[in-house]
User: What shape does this take?
Amino acid sequence: MPLRLHCRGFVSDCFVMEGLMSLYYAALFLHIVGALGLFAALALEWAGLSNLRRARSVGQFRDWAGLLQGLRRVGGPSGLTLLVTGIYLTVTRWGSQPWIILGLIGLVTMVVLGAVVTGRRLASMAKELSGEGALSPALRRQLQDPVLLLSAWLRTGIGLGVVALMSAKPGLGGSLIILGGAAFLGFATGLAAGAWGRRTFSVATESADS
Ligand code: HEM
Assistant: This one.
């Protein structure tokens, strides 16, 4: 529903209304820029993760883990922009709505999963790194940790679910179905991808050993 300006009062009142509308559209623009930033960070995470899982040397590990750890500089400001502009859009126009509350829960879940699940695992692997040359078999096995894939898939599902919520703006039932369905699809795909990754890794190491 677009905002329309029906100003029949004093000219000064019309200027104030126009100013507020421009602010609203500026906030909406920034909100969408924040969403683009969040998905850019997710896309870089996917690229980093798939290369990291194939890393054979300490140098390759450092390069890709460095990219993944640096994603905080894109994802953090994007998340903050989404939150601040989202609160402004909510307060100035929409008030409390189920799709907004679930969107907020989705955003917080994405941030927590990224920092606690993925961030901590990468940091603890990076700590085990020493010297140069080939990666230790223990570290190569840790890189196949299915939870890393699960976390990335789940956040992708939730992110897409939140975009669907923001676009359709449904009631409580619709919002729960959309976000729950998207999170479930992300979770199920992540589980399948993790199991498949583990299986191909053990087949590859078994054939390398024999
Ligand atoms: C993962 C997080 C989020 C993403 C990807 C996202 C994305 C979007 C997108 C793409 C739109 C434009 C939809 C349209 O114009 O039809 C939008 C609108 C909106 N978002 Fe978000 N958003 C997120 C989080 C939030 C949060 C946390 C809040 C509130 C605290 C919020 C509040 C709003 C509001 C009120 C609108 C409606 C603006 C309008 O149509 O006038 N969003 N969001």
Remarks:
- Residues 28, 31-32, 35, 38, 82-83, 86-87, 89-90, 94, 100, 103-104, 106-107, 159, 162-163, 166-167 surround protoporphyrin IX containing FE (CB under 6 Å).
- The helical segments are 11-52, 58-70, 72-94, 98-128, 137-143, 146-168, 172-209.
